[in-house]
């Protein structure tokens, strides 16, 4: 599931810059939330694990897709402005 960020004033799509090694997935998601301009992010208490990612100007939807796939997560979007992240098995 793609998660889209809002476009900037110049209509440039938002991107993610991330360089982390063995970082907690919740910290990664919060960093991406800020970079992509996502206002409402709900992270299930069962979301856990550590990941290593190096992104340079990766479009937000693609960055979230990669993290979700790598960390076995899924996202549900409500009304386009609330994103709920949970383990894929839930």
Would you kindly provide a written description of the structure presented here, covering whatever features stand out?
With 90 residues, the chain is an alpha+beta fold. 26% of the residues lie in helices and 40% in strands. The protein contains two helices and five strands, in the order βαββαββ. The chain has helices at 25-36, 60-70; strands at residues 15-24, 40-43, 50-59, 73-78, 82-87. The chain has a three-stranded mixed sheet, covered by helices on one side. A hairpin with a 3-residue loop joins strand 4 and strand 5 (82-87). Helix 1 packs antiparallel against helix 2 (60-70). 20% of the residues are buried.
Q: What is the average per-residue confidence, as pLDDT, rounded to a whole number?
A: 90
The secondary-structure element order is EHEEHEE
Question: What's the total count of β strands?
Answer: 5
Rg from Cα: 12 Å
**Secondary structural class:** alpha+beta
Helix-residue proportion: 25-40%
Multimer state: single chain
> Which parts are unreliable, with pLDDT below 50 for 5 consecutive residues or more?
none
Q: Trace the largest sheet across and list its strands.
A: 2-5-4
In percent terms, what proportion of residues is strand? 35-45%
Number of helices: 2
Major sheet: size, sense and barrel closure? 3 strands, mixed
Terminal residue distance: 15 Å
Shape: globular
């Amino acid at each position: 599931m793609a998660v889209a960020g809002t476009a900037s004033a110049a209509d440039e799509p938002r991107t993610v810059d991330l360089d982390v090694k063995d970082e907690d997935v919740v910290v990664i998601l919060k960093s991406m939330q800020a970079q992509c301009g996502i206002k409402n992010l709900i992270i299930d208490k069962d979301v856990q694990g550590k990941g290593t990612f190096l992104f340079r100007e990766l479009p937000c939807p693609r960055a979230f897709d990669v993290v979700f796939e790598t960390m076995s997560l899924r996202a549900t979007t409500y009304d386009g402005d609330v994103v709920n992240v949970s383990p894929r098995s839930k």
